[in-house]
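#structure-requests
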Amino acid sequence: MGYQFSIHHAHMSSGMIKQGRKLENKRISRRGFLKVLGGLAVTAGAAAVFWEMWRPKGGPSPTRTLKPNVYTQNGKSLVSIVKGNSDTDIETLVRRAVDAIGGIGKIVSTGKTVVIKPAVLTSDPNCAPDPVVVAAIAKMAKEAGGTVIVAETSGNGDTAYNLSKVGITLAAQDVGAEVRALPSEEEILIEVPLGTKLTTVKTYPTVYNCDVLVSVPRLKRHGSTAVTMSLKNMMGTVPQSEMNRLHNVDLSQCIADLNTVMKPDLTVVDATYAMAGQGPTGGEMVEMDTVMASGDPVAIDMVAAERLHKLEQQLGIASFDPAEVRHINSAAALGVGTNNIDDMTIIEESIS
């Protein structure tokens, strides 16, 4: 088809040249001149249509922009930490955490498409955020006028099955949100202009085209990256084949690179129970009765990592150094957010 287009284009170009020569060798009226110009415009328009039909497809799409953090105060990233107790309603914790930094209305308004991205690794509920946390965010986004989709790609097993098994599908649908297993969609290729290890990456239309992206991880340890919270949760925006590639290239740097094109607008960390000691599976589940929120995924990962480190110290568990978590530091270096506590305003609240 490309060959046919070249011949056709050449014929059209030849026609344009002949018309131009006629203009040079023959005087015509103003009306005739405009008629010729109109013919040239139609021919050029047809050429453009044919080129759009036949141009090579499959190249990278333009990248998503690195959105600014709207949850700030005096230039500092806001991070909320709301702690309750065993009797505290989880939805109350979520609402208070988000309201403490400015509310869902800062990013969601009527007509916007909101994708809530829970971290659902497997069918084990301990490897996913509490369904009530996900449903609470969906309710808040719908109240603000958004169209809400809960979407994920699991790292292990069938995504639709995992979402259902951990209870997120039913909880989200009960509050009027749609649930999508991203692997059911056709993959698209996007550019990663700020990446140091990634230049392109495959993702899915649902997360690529949304107006608002909300990251909802559980606070957990991870064998390869020390911790897995918001930044690493964005690995679930790419196909499993890409997850494997990123693990083999340079996992920590690839997580940082990926967040330059898939930066969440809001992160809500479920620390009602945290996974300590080891992860992303098989760790010790410790009750913390806490929910955290921020518009800065680097800042909240840094703060959450420090809280998890302190918890492990209290429990006598061999821990990690939060300052040495490489993907957090790398994301900060790329401008995704800040890992400097001095550049954060941390809001702590207790609900008795």
